[in-house]
Amino acid sequence: MIEMRQIQVFLAVSELLNFSQAAEKIHLTQPTVSSHLKTLERYLGVELLERGGRQIRLTPAGKLFLPYARRIYNLQQRAEKELRLHAGAEAGSLEIGGSNTPGQYLLPGLIGQFSRGREKVRITLKIGDSEEILSQIADGSLELGLVGTPAPAGEFISQPSHGDELILVAGPAIAAARAPRTTVEELKKLPLILREKGSATRRVTLSALLELGIRGAHELNQVAEMGSVEAIRQALKGNLGAAIISDLAVAEDLAAGRLTRLALPGPPIHRRFHLVCDRRRKLSPLAAALSRFILADNQ
Predict the structure, then answer these.
(1) Whole-model pTM?
(2) What is the b/e burial string over 25-50, where b = at least 16 CB atoms within 10 angstroms of the residue's CB?
(3) pLDDT tens digits for 130-179?
């Protein structure tokens, strides 16, 4: 039988690829770590690690087993957490994910409002692109996520929440050389900063541009690709280029004159964020309460 301590040891060693560091992380001795791994390998009938000299590597079997080990460990941790919640043994802790825009510009304020008066509640916010957040919900690392597009219906429950508008913005130096309204041909020539692949903002932007006859990023004058809204915001202020970005992210800069809005061709690009959870799992009481709060705040 596989023991949870063996799973914990395997995950620590696979993350750090160092026995002594793994032992220190999970508060065991190095011989105990080695013993747990050998017992696990004997039970599974395969070698999970290549131990050669100073280097440790996952074997093909170890790479195959790793995602299952993570899921087993996350489910065990979640089961313990939910049982403690239901038994009243703790006030509650929760990890929620947010894709870049709602994670940086919406969720911090919502979490602050929800936590007010709940002194024993601890909420951790993790930020990544939409694909990363959905992946962590699917593997049990997160209970909830607020992302930029609806999630696949078969695996997730996805409820529309707050929204924003994607607008064309540039630094003053670049904006000064442009007409207030941008044509499709001018948009193609404009030096543009795009979000990375996997970003909901990128998907929504390219979908809207497709309606204007622009068939993809290859038809744009892309000067940079960046992995966060904040990185793009700083690049815009440095006059690197223009960007189609959430109005939530640049509201203060527009008001202060640090950035300038240019009119996009075509209709406005409005979108809704979506609060997502795993369809296969019941939310903990704390996650359910936060979910209701977020959705009610949008009404």
Answers:
(1) 0.65
(2) beebeeeebbebbeebbeeeeeebbe
(3) 999 999 999 999 999 999 889 988 899 999 999 999 999 999 888 887 77
Structure tokens at 175: 């904006």
Helix (H) or strand (E) holding 264: none
Alpha carbons 237 and 232: distance in angstroms, whole number:
9
The whole-angstrom separation of Cα 202 and Cα 280 is 29
Tokens of 269: 């690009």
- The phi and psi torsions of 30 (rounded to 5 degrees) equal -60, -40
**Cα separation, 138 vs 297, whole angstroms:** 26
Query: pLDDT per residue over 167-191, tens digit each?
Result: 999 998 888 877 767 889 999 999 9
Residues 232, 248 contacting (CB under 8 angstroms) = no
Q: Which domains does the chain have, with CATH numbers?
A: 4-86 (1.10.10.10), 90-162+273-297 (3.40.190.10), 163-271 (3.40.190.10)
Give strand pairing partners of 262: 168
Strand partners, 55: 52
Which CA distances in Å does 202 have to 23, 63, 146, 228, 244?
Answer: 42, 31, 16, 11, 9
CB burial readout 158-178, b (16+ within 10 A) else e: bbebbbbebbbbbbeebbeeb
Nearest to 109 by CA among 278, 298, 271: 298
23 contacts 32 by C-beta, under 8 angstroms = yes
Rounded to whole angstroms, how far apart are CA atoms 198 and 100? 11
